[in-house]
Amino acid sequence: MVTTEHGFSLVELMIAIAIMSILMVMGAPLTRAWVANAHIAHAQNVLAEGYATLRALSLKNPLGVKGDQEVASLTINGKLLSAGYRDAYGTVNMVWQGNIDTDVTLALTEAGCANTLRLNNLGMALDSRCLAYKISSAGGRDESSTLQ
């Protein structure tokens, strides 16, 4: 009577585990870069949404500001972006807020802007240098561009 054995030998099992380990070690950096790039893309989308809201608010001009004066502003404060306007008493009225991921850094590249973009009643930046920004994340591809 002949018996056949079923299953894997110890050598076959160890080879399979070694191959899986090599694939995981090679794939981990790719996954990390993919996640970082996805977070950068999310930050770009949040910034674009905030800028669109800011332009709409400045064109609406809730206080009837005339001339080349600030109507509305977008502020980047750490991981929080907020768009709003100051009323006649100096109180800030926020109309939009957005959050970016904790591992992402977003900043306006011009040092004089103090991470605040101000628009006039025509929806134009009071300082066009403040339209440039940089987004970075560890392991990802940094993104620098200009708001339009």
Automatic annotation (TrEMBL):
UniProt-listed SUPFAM superfamilies: Pili subunits
Sorted UniProt keywords: Membrane, Transmembrane, Transmembrane helix
Residues in coiled coil: none
Organism (species): Gynuella sunshinyii YC6258
Matches recorded under Pfam families: N_methyl
Residue stretches spanning the membrane: 6-26
UniProt protein name: Tfp pilus assembly protein FimT
Superkingdom in the source lineage: Bacteria
Matches recorded under Gene3D superfamilies: Glycoprotein, Type 4 Pilin
